[in-house]
Design goal:
- Strand 5 and strand 6 form a beta hairpin.
- The longest helix has 22 residues.
- This protein is of the alpha+beta class and about 425 residues long.
- The protein contains 15 helices and 13 strands.
- The radius of gyration is 36 Å and the shape is elongated.
């Protein structure tokens, strides 16, 4: 006979199709109430019946067993027996907890020449560690465990083996016999997460992905057309067949496909392996530098680009040149400009224009800046930010730190522009 009981979120529920007498109720239904009446009762705050899980009335919805009246509980017990067997089946599942630390351990684990475990292996080992944690909990609290199962002293390992074999919430692939399970549990208790890992992932001769294969994978992934992981795997196979040549992204040398054969056979890898190496933390910067544009890489990945703005006006001045694209002279030439901004306030404190970008344009901007600061009684700025363009010829004279300005910062291209566009233009004295 099918049982009306089902555990949900560690609570015992009763399938409503065993309680109702209308619609497509179960043939063994007690026919205690109509579906509409039961629905109204569970929706009311004054009734005791509580809905444990929403779902279709034909079988998915559950009513919390403890919320039923004693009369209904008695009728369920007479017809279907006590829910003790369901409690036995769920006791192990109630104490199962996914082990996040195990996942982090196997994700970071490497063997051989810094080889990572494949994703399916990481998942399997994490499930096994989580189930074994539950086994150890049950074993160390065997009295409470047996009491919950409603039984006295028995073969603890046979009981645990039965529960592990009946636990299908995750695909753990643990041993099915009690002796094998006992060996696995004792090894895990002694060695921890490492005790689950197969020996083949700890021996040097088991090495599959070498450093050369890793460089080959990165070189393929960092091609200008930015291929997907699946395409990289396909190109790797084409390379082994001799259909394409691949150049090392770092040295520029041509890879020799003979280096990717062992015992006369090509070293085959999976798409998952390609994915793991591309996403490995130590390859993150290599990939981003090759696949992202210079602008994105400089402003998102180079740590020294992210800076804290100043607290005081005149403590940092940034200078940058601009092409005034919308303004042309009668002869068709464009107007060039050079600006000086106070970073803290965003105020423009110097400006110069010219028909060409040259040293005079930069010097005129400094003159304009000093005329402004002198008229406001602001003195000499503490730090100047400039690009190499036009200004590099002055790095040993005018723009040498300590000669005129106490500090001078030489920035990568476009950084001063980014700084000045985020502030409002106002004068702060």
């Amino acid at each position: 006979m099918e049982t009306p009981y089902e555990f949900h979120e560690k609570k015992l529920g009763v399938k409503i199709k065993y309680l109702i007498f209308d619609r497509d109720f179960h043939e063994d239904s007690l026919k205690l109430i109509s579906y509409n009446a039961l629905y109204k009762r569970t929706a009311s705050s004054t009734c005791t019946e509580k809905e444990l899980r929403k779902g279709s009335w034909s079988g998915e919805a559950l009513i919390l067993f403890t919320s039923l009246s004693q009369d209904w509980k008695d009728q369920l017990t007479v017809r279907f027996g006590k829910p003790q067997e369901e409690i036995k089946k769920s006791w192990f599942a109630q104490h199962y907890v996914a082990d996040r630390e195990a996942f982090n351990f196997y994700l970071a684990y490497t063997y051989g020449d810094n080889v990572k475990l494949d994703t399916p292996i990481i998942e399997k080992y994490t499930y096994q560690a989580s189930v074994l944690n539950t086994v150890l909990l049950m074993k160390n609290n065997r009295k409470q465990y047996w009491k919950a199962l409603g039984s006295g002293a028995m073969d603890i390992w046979q009981t645990l083996s039965n529960d592990v074999n009946g636990f299908h919430d995750v695909d753990h692939k643990l041993p099915t016999t009690k002796s094998s399970l006992r060996y696995k549990v004792n090894k895990y208790a002694k060695e921890g997460y490492a005790g689950i890992i197969s020996d083949k992932f700890g021996m040097k001769n088991a090495l599959k992905v070498t450093s050369k294969i890793e460089r080959l994978i990165l070189s393929l992934y960092c091609l200008p057309n930015k291929p997907y992981v699946e395409n990289v795997h396909e190109m790797y196979e084409d390379f082994l067949k001799g259909e394409i040549d691949v150049f090392d992204i770092k040295t520029g040398e041509v890879f020799d496909k003979k280096d990717f054969f062992k015992r006369g056979k090509p070293v085959e890898i999976t798409v998952g392996t390609v994915w793991n190496y591309i996403n490995a933390p130590h390859n993150d910067i290599i990939v981003k530098k090759a696949r992202n544009g210079a602008y994105d890489f400089n402003h998102k990945n180079r740590p020294h680009v992210t800076r804290t703005p100043p607290n005081y006006s005149m403590s940092k001045i940034t200078l940058d040149d601009r092409d005034i694209m919308h303004t042309k002279l009668p002869d068709g030439s464009k107007v060039m400009a050079y600006y000086a901004f106070d970073v803290m306030s965003g105020a423009m404190i110097g400006i110069a224009h010219s028909k060409s970008k040259n040293h005079d344009l930069y010097i005129d901007c400094l003159r304009s800046m000093f005329r402004f600061t002198t008229s406001k009684g602001l003195g000499v700025p503490m730090q100047m930010e400039v690009e190499q363009h036009l200004v590099s010829d002055y790095k040993d004279g005018l723009m040498k730190a300590g000669n005129v300005f106490p500090f001078v910062r030489w920035c990568n291209l476009q950084i001063p522009v980014i700084l000045t566009t985020q502030f409002q233009f106002k004068v702060t004295t």
